[in-house]
Design a protein that fits this description.
The protein has about 130 residues and is an alpha+beta fold. The chain is globular. The N and C termini lie far apart (about 40 Å).
Length: about 130
């Protein structure tokens, strides 16, 4: 599958191919329809994130919106906002923790919903 890959810490991500993620118990495989770029993504890719640096190559992206393909608790086609447990939102498919996913109503603008997580809160706090 296609994804935004960080192949070297400090370098810009590149579009590349990676394997489709495999879900575990309590997780859903999600087809990503929108993802937001936020300060955590940038810090991680620069090697400046306090939580450490993942092994490269890795798929960027800490929050996204998409449709469930397969899950234990969520039905296929369910629209959700989610934070992948280990990143990976900038890809065609990602993993969501079903207990933390937020189910979105039909008709939700996926691009708008993706922007309401960390990126949206950052913007809101800046103007408050």
């Amino acid at each position: 599958m296609r994804a935004a890959l960080v192949e070297q810490i400090g370098a810009a991500p590149v579009v590349g191919e990676t394997s489709e993620p495999q879900r575990g118990e309590g997780q859903a495989l999600v087809q990503v329809t929108a993802a937001a770029l936020n300060p955590i993504d940038i810090s991680i890719s620069l090697g400046k994130f306090y939580g450490g640096t993942p092994d490269v190559p890795y798929v960027m992206g800490r929050e996204a919106v998409g449709r469930v393909v397969e899950g234990d608790q969520l039905d296929p086609g369910t629209q959700i906002w989610f934070q992948p447990p280990v990143g990976g939102a900038f890809a065609e498919f990602a993993i969501a923790d079903e207990s933390q996913a937020i189910v979105l109503p039909e008709g939700t603008d996926h691009s708008l919903a993706a922007a309401l997580g960390i990126a949206g809160m950052t913007g809101w706090l800046a103007v408050e």
